[in-house]
Predict the 3D structure of the following.
Amino acid sequence: MTAKESMSSALEKVVLSWEDKDPSSHQWWLARAQEPAGRKRDFFIAEDKIAGYLIGLVRYPPAVNYKVIAATPLTTSPVSSSGTAEVKAAVAGWIASGQRENIWLWRIARLSKMIWNQLPIIAAGFFLGTLIGFLVSFVAESSGLMGWPMMVVGGLIGAGSGPVLKFILDCCPESKVNGPWTRLIVITLSAIFGSVIAAGILFNLF
C-alpha cells in the first residue's frame, strides 16, 4: 500500500460530527466537533481576524488551552462553507497523520500583521527615544558631567519624557492586538532602542 493510499484509508476512519455555528449566536467558533468515545478531544474552527486565516483548534478536556493544528487563508468574507470544509478536512488529516498544515505560514502572517498594526506606536517611541538619547548625550558632552550627576540628569530627562509617552499612547487608537500594558511595553522598548542608538552615534562622533 502506498503512502497516499495509507493516508486515504486513515482519513476514512476519522469520523467527526461537526456542529456549525448558528448565524444568530455570538459564539467565537464557526464550527465544533467532539471526538467519539475514547480520547474525547474537542475540535473547533475559528476565524483569526488578525492574520486573515481560518484555523483549526484542538482542546484536551478538562484543559482550557487550545492548540492550533490547521490553518488556511481566508479568501471570502463572510466565511463561506467551502472555507470551513477545507479546515475540517485539514483537522481530519491531523487526526489521521499528526501533521499540521500551513501553521508556519499562519504564524508569519499573524506576526506581520501584529507588527504592522503596532508600527505607529513603535515609530513614535523610537523617535522619542532618539530625541532623549541625543539630549542626554549632548548634556553629558557639553557639561562634562560624569557618574552620579549624569545619572541624575538623565533620570530627570527620562522622567520628563513620561508625560510625552502617555500622550502618545492616549493619541494612538486602541490596538486590535495588544492591551494597554503590552502597548506600553512596546513603546517603552522602542524608546529605549532609539535612545541607545542616538547616544551611541553622538558619543562616537564627539
